[in-house]
Amino acid sequence: MVSVQTDNPVIDLNNLVKQYGEYTAVNGLSLRIYPGEIFGLLGPNGAGKTTTILMMLGLTEPTAGSVKVCGIDSTRHPLQVKRKVGYMPDDVGFYEDRTALDNLVYTARLNRIPLDEAQKRARELLQRVGLAEAANKRVGTFSRGMRQRLGLADVLIKKPEVIILDEPTLGIDPEGVRELLALIRDLSRTEGLTVLLSSHHLHQVQQICDRVGLFVRGKLIAVGDIDTLSRQLDGAPMHRVEIDVAPASAAESLKTALRELDGVSDIALKDSDQLSVGADNQAFVTLVVSSDNDLTPQIAETVIRQGSQLFGLRPHRYGLDDIYHRYFEGGEARGRVG
Amino acid sequence: MGVLAEKMRTILGSLRRSASGEAAQPQRTTSPFWIIVQKEFGDHIRSWRFIILLSIVSLACFGSIYTSVTAIRSGAILNSDINTEFLFLSMFTISDGNLPSFLTFLSFLAPLIGIALGFDAVNAERNKGTLSRVMSQPVHRDNFLNAKFVAGLLVIAMVVFALGFLVMGMGLYTIGYPPTPEQFGRVLLVLIITVVYVGLWLNLSMLFSVRFKQAATSALAGIAVWIFFLVFYSMIVNLISNATLPADSSASAIISHSNIMQLISRISPAQLFQEAATTLLLPDVRTLNPFITQEQAYLALSAPLSFGQSTLLVWPQIVALLAETAIIFALSYVTFMRQEIRSRS
Fold first, then answer.
1. Structural domains of chain B, count
2. What part of A 125-154 touches B (C-beta under 8 Å)?
3. What are phi and psi of A64, to 5 degrees?
4. Taking CB atoms and an 8 Å limit, are B132 and A112 in contact across chains?
5. Would residue B266 count as lying in a domain?
6. Residue A3 pLDDT > 60, yes or no?
7. What is the rounded distance in angstroms from the CA atom of residue A165 to the CA atom of residue A89?
8. pLDDT band at B192 (very low <50, low <70, confident <90, very high)
9. Is B27 inside any structural domain?
10. Does B7 touch chain A (CB under 8 A)?
């Protein structure tokens, strides 16, 4: 875990509002991101993530509120901000008929880096993102994953203090995503970069983010690390274990036995899976045990002591997915949050 | 040229620094503006469309020069009433009837170069997602548009001057009749006006490329305007002229009507260019007033105008061309500055 300095935010958004005519894309957003952090901005499509990012870069003007990046007002001095911030748009585009090296050198020179220095840095970065052998290939021939890695190199060539990645994992295969995220994490840790990444892919973001912010309909509805977020879900148990037991007839007695365990808050019978029932007549039942603390070993012991057969035991931790669902799905949850 | 470019660079640089109020960079590096110009220039030169256009335009021009030169050599010119003193200049304006003259070709095809270089300047970058990437670099937004325009204009200037000088050299070689410095100056000025004229079309197509999201739409819009001014505009002016013909046939009424019609027809950049270039290349043209026919002008006094006087005669046309260019540029500038830059939208 990185140490977080609470006094000096790199990105400081204060009551930010962006309206397009009647439509409010971003509504009263306040957010602080601290040096060295990897922050994930999560939200469904159209939540206003990209608009927020554009305002941070001074590419669009906020209707109200202020944006400060590295202590500089993005709206008034976009150029100084752009010198310090690397931005990778979603679906990043390159000049297709130029080589990867040319594209990087062009970006570098737009940042007033002299030609020889630019070429040196470009080669180093291509090496770093694993595109060294494709340096002189036209970008038109690149795969999606290669483009995304080139995008990362493109962002880094100006030696930024902050990098903002908009949907960096969109459209890449799982292995590519893993590599890219590992690269981002590595960069953040070794170079002390502050990273802001937006995504709607929860699992991926979960793996590398120090903190996440949930962003829905222009509002930031929750901020914190994943533990904090799951605690913010009122009534949500901390731990949940799914157990497959047989015979089915013993389920009721097992339930009573389990209920006697200290800390168990709820036991439910899960609807049997259509597929597994069809596959064999084994017909075990699945129980979901919710508890305040981790009771996995005790649960297993109880099942065995009761003389039932244990087919499966799956500890279930609350992930971003559940949090996401709790926040976004169903009018009731949204009403509560709003 | 190099000195001029260097000078412009320093002036632009100092302007920009004073505008944004930032201190001079410790080490002198090329400003992003010239980096974009360089890249765009390279892109234009390498692109297929440029090569294709260049070959069409050069073929047309060399063809027309060839016919005019053969016409001159066969002696047809001696029978006509063209002043033999300006044999060199007449190379650009006469034809043997098989092919239009150099000037006609140039005024017809040159806009196409401008349109072809500009129609996808902004929207292609937007669609490819490179616009938002470039805009997230420390580059002023206007630099992007200006650099695109300057790069296009440089390409155009290069093409026009290369063609002009090649044609001059070829003429010199075949007819063996050297131009006076004054005539050389006339040709040079015509080439400069041509660059301005093509620049106007470049600007117009860039305006469309800012306005329309699809490159195809903006190309079609550019070509539509081109055809409109080259083919239909004079017809429409004629129609209006016929419809508004004054009932009384007094001289003053007819003259004022004709003046208004001439003013309307001079909205067309093609008309402005044609008038300016013709006047400069034909020193015998003494006036652009329609009430003296060319024959009358020739017969009046066989005293051709000097270079300075010809320039004076077409000065309004030149200024009008520049003004139209400036207006169109301002329009595209305002449109572009107001647009939000998102990736691929």
1. 1
2. 154
3. -155, 165
4. no
5. yes
6. no
7. 7
8. very high
9. no
10. no
Contacts with A152 from chain B: Cβ below 8 Å: none
Does residue A147 contact residue A88 with C-beta atoms inside 8 Å?
no
Establish if B259 touches chain A: CB-CB under 8 angstroms: no
Candidates B132, B139, B141, B341, partner chain A, best to mutate (most A CBs within 10 A)? B132
Query: Of A166, A150, A8, which is closest to residue A87 (Cα–Cα)?
Result: A166
Class (C level, CATH) for A239-317: alpha beta
Range of the domain at B267: 32-338
Q: Tell me: the pLDDT tens digits for B88-122?
A: 787 787 777 777 788 888 888 889 889 999 998 99
| Cα B131 from Cα A57, distance rounded (Å) | 14
* Record: fold of A11-232: Rossmann fold (3.40.50)
Nearest C-alpha in A relative to B46: A97
* Distance of residue A145 Cα from the nearest chain B Cα, in angstroms: 16
For residue A158, which residues of chain B lie inside 8 Å, CB to CB?
A: 137
Residue A245: count of CB within 10 angstroms of its CB: 20
Q: Do the domain assignments include residue B40?
A: yes
**Quick one: closest CA in A to B25, which residue?**
A112
ipTM (interface predicted TM) = 0.78
Which residue among A96, A106, A111 places its CB closest to the CB of B39?
A106
How far is the first Cα of chain A from the last one, in angstroms, to the nearest whole number? 31
SS3 A163: strand
Per-residue pLDDT tens digits for A206-252: 778 888 888 888 888 778 887 777 666 555 556 778 888 877 777 78
Q: What is the pLDDT of residues A163-192, one digit of tens each?
A: 999 888 887 888 888 888 888 888 888 888
Residue B203 counted as domain residue = yes
